[in-house]
């Protein structure tokens, strides 16, 4: 009797293990109710429920952005679908974005929310990335800005002191392949040597490290700059260098949110007497455009019907002209306008069609100066 | 002062109080469910935040955040299943008290401490907001690095009697914490090409598996109830009475928790264990030995810490805009939406909001504790139910909760493996506390080591006063132990037997020596294998894995040799004990198979359908309930709860190959 028991248990065990091995080979895809399929004809109707896939954790910056904007879109977009926000976090947002392109479908039931850390791995051509922003369809984008500053202990009291500055600045970053890269490329354009230490948990802890004197070069995005760094500047504990600016007709002009700060281009002109150009500057501009000017975005998969794409783009245009929305959005979106994908698509396409030599320049810079080697496709 | 009073006045407005109450109830419910904590509470409340005015929204969030750690004590104490990763510490003494029939006393102690911790936290918040900025700035990378070292070593050192096994468990925890993205270089470590592992293994899944699933495996096999007595024993009032003489432990626990909340990268789980560690380390003489055997101080210190952590966490959130966890990140997001920018100016510009937050915290702590007393009474009967009956519902809930962090189905088989490891550790007397602390502090340890090493020279950081103080705390017990040993040698005494005391986790049956050798050997193999894998990482990603695998390999080799020698000395085990062990292995094997069955069912049908099939099957074959209709009602209740959670609490249920759309 006992032996029989043992045998049946053993058989059960083998069966179960075998099925688990099978399961290990391909795992059922999680998240999102809508699988591929549905109505994809050119004049398809808006689905009754739309899931905004946020590849970041709940409560973070991108999640807050999506949840803020969702109710306004629900009211504005044609067909008034119920909008649900779903977080698929992990892998510096690569996991969620990969999942979106492989199983998000083209019927508009799922849309992808992106941020700088979704874009940069694609620009760097990282091995893990399965998505391609030259193929995905932008519905709407929303930029941000930022500013670079130093500790006055460096001896730099104003931006023009950078001319002929020959000491090494100490920079604190999160990861060389995230938004820190834009600042690294900016300092590379200016030709200022920096020693960078990565591993900070976020921009906040890095700013504290500057206040403690552990580092002396830092950047913050606009809202954090205004609330956290400006009081430091008033107390003489920080020296602003430049802002990243905003794009206007292909040129970069001063950021209206930080009107007193010169742009990097102004600082360069001031020091070198000419406008910045060359591969280093091209690399800076490519990563700046993706990482800042169009940082937050809402995207649909390639092949989504035009009727649905246009409905979202029109909603963005309507919202960007809506006074009550803009009033509320001043704090949540940092004062940067919501731009329809129709308007931004050419710029975005250009930014993501990065030239091989520019990409290689960036990869080489990471490798040679910061000892960071990336696995690329 | 005016601002404080006017903020208090705003609670006279019933709508404010209602929102606070809703938050408290959401927090309590989420806290009761094993594995769900602040993050899940946040998910429930998120949709409401953006449509409310600032002050009610603050009351709602704070109401939930302040009480999550009140009710998560219930599952830990009564069932031995961690209510959250930070409440796992209550398994040591709180659960032990429940086993002795003092469940009611343990719970009332926990609730009283929670309330006190919350109130002390609120007071601390009020006092420290003007002072916190320079204090936080004083604490640089070297100090945080030393604190993480101290945290890991303290818990390992406190596993008296089996220091070696404690250290091995700690090293194993650190190693498991290394899975995923490296903090200082863009490398993915030990992820075996799986992108879903690149964020690391979720803490909740690990804590639930190593303690919770291990307990399920153990108790289903034993087929008994959790408590081995049949009355609630000493009553609720006893706990309240016992609470006041121990107020010094409440205060110390709360202060430690608060500081753990203030510092980046430390957090609630490490905070509660550190509070427990200090209570044990500072206990005098004989009373020290009571820890782990149902000492009330082992409940009081961590519970008051758990609640003040959340208050401490608000300081960097409000003053620097740096949230310590998901709840405070949500608070930060909500503040930004309302145009309230955290930062140095918040004290002058938005003092009223700060006081609303502080008062919400204090009021929620009191209301939450009172409600806990109400709900705990019916729930406490659970510890008298035969465990297999509980397990039928617990198994789906544990896997569901572990799934929420990563939302990847592969986490389920991984949890099962960690659960089996947890059972082995339990049976072979490897303390799991250092394991969990090592896991939690692994990345902070590495991160702050890198920052320290890169930003300071050795002589610069090693001589900072804070670093020296913590080094002294670390070395002092060793020196004292050394002196004691030398003294003992001078005055020859009868040799103390070296058999490890059964301290941290009371185990009824120890495995045989032969298996003990296998387990130590198994750890050795894991460390060596990990060392080999680590050699392909970039330099900056390799250092800590190298250090920890070498230490771990040496320690487990030593343990292997010691066990081997003991085996040689003892000779082969007796016929009877071998037979007993075989029997134990067979029945735990069966309970593991049952867990595996659930995982497979979930892979095929998704969690909801799997639950519908599994619970009746498990009840019918294993639990054998007295009344037949339990087979029907039990699964219906659990599935209804899961569906409600999916619909209204924003929880995601795993989907299988065959998708039924639920």
Automatic annotation (TrEMBL), chain B:
Keywords: Membrane, Transmembrane, Transmembrane helix. Residues 520-644 form the DUF1468 domain. InterPro entries: DUF112_TM, DUF1468. This is Tricarboxylate transporter. The chain crosses the membrane at residues 16-37, 44-67, 73-94, 106-129, 135-159, 166-184, 196-214, 318-341, 353-376, 383-401, 407-425, 432-450, 462-483, 515-537, 543-562, 593-622. Signal peptide: none annotated. It comes from the Bacteria. Residues 18-436 form the DUF112 domain. The lineage of its organism: Bacteria, Bacillati, Actinomycetota, Actinomycetes, Micrococcales. Pfam families: TctA, TctB.
